[in-house]
Amino acid sequence: MIEEPKALRIARDLGPDGTPGWRQPTAAQIAAFRDQPTGFVLDAMMGAGAMSAAIKPCAGLPDRLCGPALPVGNRPGDVLATLAAIHMVRPGDILVAGFDGYQGCAAAGDRVMGFLRNRGGAGFVTDGPLRDLTGLRGIGLPAFCTGLTPGSPVARGPGTVGLPVRCGGQQVETGDMIVGDSDGIVVVPFARIDAVIAALRGVAEAELSLDAQVADGLAEVGLISAMLESGEDIDWV
């Protein structure tokens, strides 16, 4: 006989008391990403780390998100693990709720967002839709999702809290940096945070310099100008 799985699997070093060993970026590391566009962060990772373009900021809510991930794994149409994760949230956490991409009902609504806000959470990301838009706007917490639906989920499990989860095409683990804006969501793996911060400085300098040149009237792309001048990589027909 196949043994029935437990309703919840929770990473042992998670807990409402903030058990030591729960990895989390430092305040300085989080601050390094806070005002950076997702495009800059992605470039600093050589183009890796973006979630699916289907995951967008929910209309009428703040579209800026920055903080460490608390990953949650749900079965399609089920939110038991998301509800359990509310009890594990630490101030500043981003709840990343994998929903297996299911679009048939909501992955959360205004009540879950209210719980999350009251626990000090900084935002919510899911690969499913949300519901209760009017209530969500009243809560005012940043939420990224695939759209809206009136459909209600169930809460039966099984599900996971604090274990790696796949969401929007990206692997998300506890303590990974989540950066979001109007362009979407980028995931920075915990082990790469310092390296990405170092690369980010150079990316930002280059991008801001080019922006200033365009504002001053620049009207050509250096790479294309060089190709046109040399003619080596162009076949004129």
From TrEMBL:
<feature type="binding site">
    <location>
        <position position="132"/>
    </location>
    <ligand>
        <name>Mg(2+)</name>
    </ligand>
</feature>
<dbReference type="InterPro" id="IPR036704">
    <property type="entry name" value="RraA/RraA-like_sf"/>
</dbReference>
<feature type="binding site">
    <location>
        <begin position="109"/>
        <end position="112"/>
    </location>
    <ligand>
        <name>substrate</name>
    </ligand>
</feature>
<keyword id="KW-0489">Methyltransferase</keyword>
<protein>
    <recommendedName>
        <fullName>Putative 4-hydroxy-4-methyl-2-oxoglutarate aldolase</fullName>
    </recommendedName>
</protein>
<keyword id="KW-0808">Transferase</keyword>
<feature type="binding site">
    <location>
        <position position="131"/>
    </location>
    <ligand>
        <name>substrate</name>
    </ligand>
</feature>
<keyword id="KW-0460">Magnesium</keyword>
<dbReference type="InterPro" id="IPR005493">
    <property type="entry name" value="RraA/RraA-like"/>
</dbReference>
<dbReference type="GO" id="GO:0046872">
    <property type="term" value="F:metal ion binding"/>
</dbReference>
<dbReference type="GO" id="GO:0032259">
    <property type="term" value="P:methylation"/>
</dbReference>
<dbReference type="GO" id="GO:0008168">
    <property type="term" value="F:methyltransferase activity"/>
</dbReference>
<keyword id="KW-0479">Metal-binding</keyword>
<dbReference type="Pfam" id="PF03737">
    <property type="entry name" value="RraA-like"/>
</dbReference>
